[in-house]
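This part of the workshop introduces the protein records we will be handling. A record pairs a protein's sequence with a compact description of its fold. As an example, a complete record with its sequence and its structure tokens follows.

_____
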Amino acid sequence: MAQDAQKWSNSKIAAFAVDQADQVGLVEPTIRLMSDLGLFLKTKCVFAEADPLFRRALAIDEAAYGATHPSVATHLNNLASLLRDTNRLGEAEPLFRRMVSILKHFNDSTGHEHPHWRAALANYIGLLQAMGLSREEIARRPQDVAGYPTSHNVSSHVPKGFFARLLHGSARHLRMRPAR
């Protein structure tokens, strides 16, 4: 089980290992195995098998660490990305919104920017664009979630003009990497 799921040639073996780890309540290795196997299946376009793994990893993470832990945000990103990739944009939006909210809470409570903060905003705005929302709505939603006034008087966690660059697509390189 020390190998990553991505290196296993037979995903059935990985699925068995995940199931066994989950049954005995091994939190950390189970979350990692589920995430890795889900990412492996997602890259192979086996979305129907990846979805329950991402959902279970998220549920275990929430139960183990609480609903506002930054690790939960990472697993929300993985699930929301899968939903986006399978054109379930309406289902993905509240998950991306919640991810941004969790990371904003982290920023505020620690006084430091979370390493995935900007990528989370970029992912959320990219989804809103894919949903076909107006530029005004796309500009308003992240500011509402992050707690910023619509006057663009944003916090120190967002550099000046950051939302504008996101809206113009110059921050596409900020995509959040999947959890491992």
User: Anything to note?
Assistant: The helical segments are 11-23, 27-43, 47-65, 70-85, 89-110, 117-130, 135-146, 162-167. The chain is about 65% helix and 0% strand.
